[in-house]
Structure formats: C-alpha cells, structure tokens
Amino acid sequence: MHSPSPSLGQSILDAADALARFSDMEGGLTCAYLTPAHRAAAAMLAERMRAAGMQVRVDAIGNVIGRYEADPSAGPDAKVLMTGSHFDTVRNGGRYDGRLGILLPIAVVGALNEAGIRLPYHFDVVGFAEEEGLRFKTSFLASSVLAGRFDPALLARADADGITLAQALAESDLPGRGDPDALRAAAVDPATLLGFVEVHIEQGPVLLHHDLPLGIVTQIAGSSRFQVRVEGLASHAGTTPMTMRKDAAAAAAEMVLLVESRCGQAPTLVGTVGQLQVPNGSSNVIPAACHFSMDIRAGEDAVREAAIADIVAGIEAIAARRGVRAEVERVPPVNNAPCAPWLRAQFAAVLNKRGLQAFELPSGAGHDAMMMQRITDVAMLFVRCGNGGISHNPLETITAEDAQLAAEVFVDFLRHFKPR
Ligand code: HGY
Ligand code: MN
Ligand code: MN
Fold this sequence. Notes:
The structure is a single chain. The protein contains twelve helices and 14 strands. With 420 residues, it is of the alpha/beta class. The protein has two domains: 8-221 and 336-415, Aminopeptidase (3-Layer(aba) Sandwich); 222-334, Alpha-Beta Plaits (2-Layer Sandwich). Helix 3 links the parallel strand 3 (80-86) and strand 4 (122-128). The relative contact order is 0.17. The model has no long low-confidence stretch (mean pLDDT 97). One manganese (II) ion (MN) is lined by residues 86, 97-98, 131, 200, 367. Homodimer.
C-alpha cells in the first residue's frame, strides 16, 4: 500500500456522523459518561474496531481498546504504540472533538489490514470513555485509569441527579462494576509502551489562519477546575434595603469579573465561568445561594498557580466584605504536558517528506495525551478546524480532504516509526 484509498477521509467523516446519532439530547450531540447513548457509542466503536481487524477489550472505566496485533516477526515481547482520544462530549458539542482521534486510527488500521500490512509493534487504539468532565464535573476519568493515576475518592462524586460515580459504575455493564481494585488493575504497564500519539481537531483558528491542514503540538496547557458555592441570606426583594443584603448572586458576579480580569494579565492564561446557577431562585427573593464553575488554564503551571492563588484570595475577600460564605472546591488539576521532541521530529519528517510545513503550535485545550504523558512520551497531530476554528459547538467542522491527509500522514508515521 503506497497510500490509503482517497475515500478514507470521507469515510472518517461518515463514521463521525454515524457515531453522533447516539446522543443524550434531541437535535444535537451530547454524550455524557455512561448514559445509554454513551454505551451505544462504545458498542459502535468496538464493532468498527473488530471490522477493521483489531482484537477488542473494554476496561473497568469503559475504555474501548482495540489492538492491531504486531507482525509475528516482532516476537512475543512486542511493545505497544498507543493512540486514541475520547468519545464523550460536552453538552451540545461537535462531532470531531475526541472522536476524530479514534475514528481516524480505526480507518487507518482497516486500510493497513486490507493491504495485508502488519506493523513491527502492537498498535492499540483507545476510545477513552470520559475526558470532558460533563457528568461528574471531573475530567480525564478514563485516561487517569489507564495511566494508573485514578483517585478512588472520585467514586463518591455525584452527578446532577445525585447518582455517584460508584453507583453509575455498579449499575453499568463494565468489568469490575466500580471495584477500586479493578480500576487500579486496569492501568497499563508503562514498560510495555513505546509512546502515545493522539490525533485531534485543533479546536481553534491557528491552522486555518495559516492556511495549513495539519500541525504538530509542542505542549498542552495545564488546567484547574473548581466548583464555588456562595451562601448568602434569602430575604424579601422589596423590603430589604440595598445596604442590608447578603446577596449570593451579586457576590458571585463580582467573583466572575475577578476571574476575567485576573486571567487577562498573562499571555497564555485563560479563565472561564461556564456554569452559574441560583438554585431554587425566585425573582422576588434575594439569592441565598449561587454556585458556579471556574476553569483556569495556562501554558506554564506557575502562571496558572499564581492566578489561582490570587483568585481564591480575592473570592475570600469579596465574601468577607459582603457578609456571605464562599466555599471553593478544587477538582484534581492537570499540569502542563510537554510533547516529546523525538516523536514530534518523526511527525515533522513525515510532513516534510510530503512537502508540507511541519508547523508547531501549543494546545490550549486539554487532551487525553496529558494524562498519558505521566507514564510515557506523547505527541499530538492537530487537524485544521473549519468555521473560524469554533469547537465545543455543533458548528465544529473539518473537511474530508484534511481528514484524508491526516490519515495518510498517520500511515506514514506508523510505517516509519522508530522507537526511541
Ligand atoms: O476542556 C478541554 O480542554 C477539553 O476539550 N476537554
Ligand atoms: Mn472537548
Ligand atoms: Mn477533545
């Protein structure tokens, strides 16, 4: 096989359309962890992996792992090059975020298999079951299990309906049903890995702006997420003087603006309040409570940590001045993850050979590769995002031509791959 069939790109887009039919919502794509749509998506991935020529297993957190067995000449101790990304989504998200990094490698394996080409290493394609943090407000559940970094305390986290992660796993069809030992045992042995490479839609406008189809990621920005609960005092909206209120929502509003202004003070630093509620609020009652999320990221961990320290201190100061209480709950942060120069160089060589620029860029979005970087060297190939680079939005798009090129580059990468 000199190059994969020219219809591979379109087939990847078609597969993303087919997978997007499983959704928790009408008229859009939401695929939250362990919902019926999520289980159906997992089953479709497993089926497609098998059809492409892989052995498939599902681990204790729900990762769907397909193995394209090494050429027999690699012997019984053949090591594993791993790829993959997540198949859960944000609420009303795009169909390529995460999924491209599973469907493209499946298509590539299918093409290799059809051409009778085996690789001198096992090639594992992982459909990571949870990355976005939508349901349990903590992200990277799936890759943290595979990387042996799962925190069992997370089993007590509840979703919006009060169902804990432990309960959801116990009621699932997954092996171990949430048994902490089974989750621990699902970790991959780092000594067996040659590395981890992830294909992902860029989710931003940089490649589009430079008129380039593909890019190589230099590093992935670290991120921290928080849930903040502000408690004030409910009282009558008509009778309580403005100077005598303990308004939780007004306090939260000041905190949101603090996040915005503090995170505007360094180049790669960003801060977002994406969820904000007045639970049980009424239009004529001063809010007794306001709950909001914070997502803070930066290219350098120290920059992020400094911003967090200032913001948490600022939240306490605002609460004290306004006579409300603020509780800041931090979910485990994920530090900045550098991509390995030797893997980046191999992607660059493949791109250059095809006459393409080996353009490098950092990732502001989080990826499963971040967690895998804790146990092995990682690299990422970004694919141009259309529609102005919009993502976490149904308007997210890629072209069949770019998917085709990415698949061809990935095939070249796999065939020329040299372990470190
Ligand atoms: O939030 C993120 O960066 C990613 O899309 N999970
Ligand atoms: Mn995402
Ligand atoms: Mn993603």
